[in-house]
Design brief:
seven-stranded mixed beta sheet; globular; Glutaredoxin; 6 helices; alpha/beta
Length: 203
């Protein structure tokens, strides 16, 4: 069973693989002279307690704060058009959003604007998508994960508390567990500390 905290060696390898894939993508895209962005490394040593404050460009070209959906539990999914596992999980996340209107899925593409817009036109997202390159990487690292690979998903409560993160492809059982924990929180059966423990044991 996958967990929030990936062993350091594996996580570093995943990060390196993501960076190599991104660099190759940029070269194939015709930008060999443009320097590849830095590795996805967080500046904070521990998981953030609450949703960090940042704003990124949305598909319409407007700056949008991650706080735009305050008051709802949020699943924040970092992805890229060059990341195969990211693309595999997006249809499932669309279905998850349809089935769970009380929470908000937000996609954050660590990618260039042009391929993201082309992919979004084809995918027809039913949840908001923000995007950026270095700025989106900084947003991801603000969650306090030491090494980061894609896809990368953050789970929050309705109060903005970060309940956990998952590095790697999300599967249905991860989403089911998240909803179960949110239900327990809403019913007052557990607090945020217990929610983090439960998710860490199952995701």
């Amino acid at each position: 069973m996958a967990r929030f905290a990936t062993p350091a060696g594996l996580t570093l390898a995943l990060s390196a693989a993501a960076l190599v894939a991104y660099t190759g993508y940029r070269l194939l895209a015709g930008d060999p002279a443009e320097e590849a962005p830095p590795a996805l490394a967080a500046a904070q040593p521990t998981l953030a307690d609450s949703l960090p404050d940042f704003a990124l460009e949305d598909l319409g070209g407007d700056m949008r704060s991650i706080g735009s959906w305050a008051g709802k539990p949020m699943l924040v999914n970092f992805w890229a058009t060059w990341c195969a596992p990211c693309l595999r999980e997006i249809p499932m996340l669309k279905e998850f959003q349809t089935d769970n209107a009380s929470l908000q899925v937000v996609g954050i593409a660590i990618d260039r604007r042009e391929p993201v817009l082309a992919f979004a036109d084809e995918m027809q997202f039913n949840y908001p998508v923000l995007m950026g390159e270095a700025e989106a990487m900084s947003a991801a690292s603000a969650f306090g994960v030491q090494f980061l690979a894609l896809p990368f998903t953050v789970f929050t409560g309705a109060d903005g508390a970060v309940l956990g993160v998952h590095t790697g492809e999300v599967h249905p059982e991860h989403l089911e567990r998240y909803v179960a924990v949110l239900d327990e929180l809403a019913a007052g059966k557990i607090d945020n500390t217990a929610a983090r423990t439960r998710l860490a044991d199952r995701i």
